[in-house]
Design brief:
By secondary structure, this protein is mainly alpha-helical. Helix 3 packs antiparallel against helix 4 and helix 4 crosses helix 5. About 36% of the residues have low confidence.
């Protein structure tokens, strides 16, 4: 008896190990990386979580206050420059890698 399946699905035993595909028949990330016209976004695996300590929080608040007094908060929102400056200062002061997204995410919590 033949199985009913969609045209883009491949059974596991039909897979060729020299041509890796997932069980739904899509191209693997290795194939995409080497295929013309495809771009593999590795940003998810390259992102690093930043563990904040109280000292870093206090430093963050002080630096954001400085940026606000310098006019880098417009309409209730900090400018990209403000985030970049604060991220650089935190990175230098605490000897770690910090970017604008870390700052924005910390402000949400």
């Amino acid at each position: 008896m033949d199985e009913v399946r969609s045209s883009n699905q491949v059974l596991i035993d039909e897979m060729d190990s020299s041509n890796p595909v997932n069980v739904f028949g899509s191209i693997s990330s290795d194939q995409m990386e080497h295929s013309e016209g495809f771009e593999v976004h590795k940003s998810v695996s390259e992102k690093r979580n930043l563990t904040w300590i109280d000292e870093m929080d206090n430093f963050l608040v002080d630096r954001l206050m400085e940026q606000m007094h310098k006019g880098q908060k417009i309409g209730g929102v900090f400018t990209k420059t403000a985030y970049a400056m604060v991220a650089r200062e935190i990175g230098e002061n605490f000897e770690l890698s910090c970017n604008s997204e870390h700052i924005k995410n910390r402000m949400k919590t």
